[in-house]
Amino acid sequence: MQLLQARGAGPTLAAAVVVAILLAGSTRALAVPSFARQTGMACEACHTVFPELTPFGRAFKMNGYLIDNLPQVKEVTADQKEALLLNWLPPLSVQFIASYTKFQTALPDPSGGVSQNGTVQFPEAFSFFYAGRIAPKLGGFIQITYDNNADAFGWDNTDIRFADQTTLGKDSLTWGVSFNNSPTVQDPWNSTPAWHYPFSQTSSLAPSPVATTQLQGIGNSMVAGLSAYGYWNNLVYLELGGYAPAPHALGGVPLNSQFPSDTVHGGSPYWRVAVQPQWGRQSLEVGLVGFADQLTPQGSNVTTGSPTNQYKDIAFDAEYQFLGDDNMVTAELIYIYENQNLNAAATATPGLDPSNTLKTFNVGASYFYQRQLGGSIGYFTTTGNTNAALYTPMGSANGSPDTSGWMFEFDYLPWQNVKLALQYTLYTKFNGASTNYDGTGRNASNNNTLYLFAWLAF
Fold first, then answer.
1. How far, in Å, CA of 180 to CA of 185, rounded?
2. What is the pTM (predicted TM-score) of this model?
3. Rounded to whole angstroms, how far apart are CA atoms 403 and 433?
4. Residues 392, 432: Cα–Cα separation, whole Å
5. Residue 71 lies in a domain
6. Cα gap 218→263, rounded to integer Å
7. How many domains does the chain have?
8. Which of 120, 249, 279, 437 is 20 to 30 Å from 41 at the Cα level?
9. pLDDT for 217-273, tens place per residue?
């Protein structure tokens, strides 16, 4: 979405948009049709191609999803304070994804044979959204998703925030508080894991490597977080907060590729710093993210001081955008280093080295012409120290978590709320090896994945 194309919007909306840009600069939101209905603007106001945000989209998110062009239900007290401000119609929308997945070689079947190869999912996922104003200075992005594989609805990405503007010195300061259900869901940039772009949509049937960092895999069913943030002078972004365990409050099964039965224990600190200069139609962001947590094995009695698995993540990310009238270019990368102290796992498994590290690197770039035709290319790699007692039972014959490969995607958007895509993932290494990675003769290239999908939002 270009910086400002409020088609058909009236003077009041135009003024609100200008104020938001001046006061907030860049942030990141999801321009689902809920926001289009609330603001009166087309999806391109906030997005290049969904879900990637433009500078205005990031400003809209950081300001609490509050700009609107709808009739309001209002109540003002005698001293002119807003006691109620509701959209006349709720900003609701729906997302529908249908897909086809095929592997180079069918995946092994748990029964000993091979599984079906070439699977249609209709739908693969189906989401309901409430996205927009809740009350004065309070807005939210709330997603509930039906997962075809689990055959159940559950909480998905959720970010509820209070936002306001002031000045610090002589320069603008946008500040706020976010209540969310996964680290980086609230982040303004698409280089971080929750909304990573390109390749934000991948097949839910694809095989998973034996290891991923906590920052990438903590999942929105495990924690509830609260953080405070500030964006100063349209340049510097700071955020500090923490997460608490909430597997029952938010529903679902905890997500952790190494120890899927573990649950988060205690508080988990989170911090973020980023700088984003903008010039003309270009912007560049560089930043750091930090996160630490600990997991308690299922069945442990934490009141007696049972050992935990502890993780500390630090990430470097960067994002570049050029938004022309016809041509749009984006490049994003993230590098995550994770230090692990697996005391609980070592206690349960003799010979397991509790000192472990993971390093992941993802880089990708995309090009679109007139927001209709485009494509993306990306490279990904995960490396870590060999730990046979940890990784061999999960499918790595040589005890290494190393996985790497390339992703390619071609996109056609006949309309802004409809995307048809062809994606191909090519593995050069999987779970520690290029050939016979699992000890049964399966090669990394056997997992190469063809993925066709249709994304609709209305």
1. 7
2. 0.85
3. 8
4. 10
5. no
6. 10
7. 1
8. 279
9. 876 667 889 999 999 999 999 999 999 887 543 333 333 445 555 677 778 999 999
